[in-house]
Amino acid sequence: MKRLYFKEEPPTLFPETTTGDSNTVFSSERTVQTPPLNLPGFLTPNTRLKMDGLKFLCHLPEESIPVAFLDPQYRGMLDKMKYGNEGKSREKRRSSLMQMSEELIGEFIQGIDNVLIPSGHLFLWMDKFHLCQGFKTWFDGTQLDIVDLIVWNKDRFGMGYRSRRVSEYCVVLQKHPRKAKGVWKIHNIRDVWLERTKTKEHPHQKPIGLQGELIAAVSNEGDYIIDPAAGSFSVMEAALSKGRNFIGCDLG
User: Fold this and answer.
1) 247/80: higher pLDDT
2) What is the 3-state secondary structure (H, E, C) of the chain?
3) Whole-prediction pTM
4) For 43-94, what is each residue's pLDDT tens digit?
């Protein structure tokens, strides 16, 4: 008996659409609006505030901020890998900084979740150790989910038992509801970003160019960007370069 075979069309993973089509997940327009922000007088925008980051977060209104950055001082590679010469011949400034426990990092992320608007973003800087070890417990109980990962190629050799580190990682988390269309409006940011920092003002110096592009992608001009552990205040410089306002602090 002769069998009949019917050719099946492969499933369409992404619909073919054109710019402006209502079915596309991409949009160059941001429809999310941030509510007006009323700040207490001592939280002066666009300045280097010196205060505790958790107390800073408590003074911000709930669901008022579209973008937050966090670069925890967890020293995972220093404290977990135990190279042996921390604070002596290498990493003196980094070793002298106060270390955040993982419980404290979780408290910071809880506070950030509280002040982010719906569909707001947290850009969380991460080292290789914690990326591999796992960090989901840091945002358990929040409305945040991981939606992307960007590799920052620093174009400099770092430390390493075996391979030498040249990269750090920026984990992109979004508050519910998760969506890209109407929220993320720049679609040419590469997930491997090459940028060498010009100066080493701080042991945790981060790329101003990348942070500026991320800010532009998920906020509007005049919006407030926060960083409760600002370090070198590179996020402030990035925010101002894109016509945004900055509120942030550091202990030192």
Assistant:
1) 247
2) CCCCCCCCCCCCCCCCCCCCCCCCCCCCCCCCCCCCCCCCCCCCCCCCEECCHHHHHHCCCCCCEEEEEECCCCCHHHHHHCCCCECCCECHHHHHCCCCCHHHHHHHHHHHHHHEEEEEEEEEEECHHHHHHCCHHHHCCCCEEEEEEEEEECCCCCCCCCCCCCEEEEEEEEECCCCCCCCCCCCCCCCEEECCCCCCCCCCCCCHHHHHHHHHHCCCCCCEEEECCCCCCHHHHHHHHCCCEEEEEECC
3) 0.83
4) 999 999 999 999 999 999 999 999 999 999 875 545 555 544 445 544 554 4
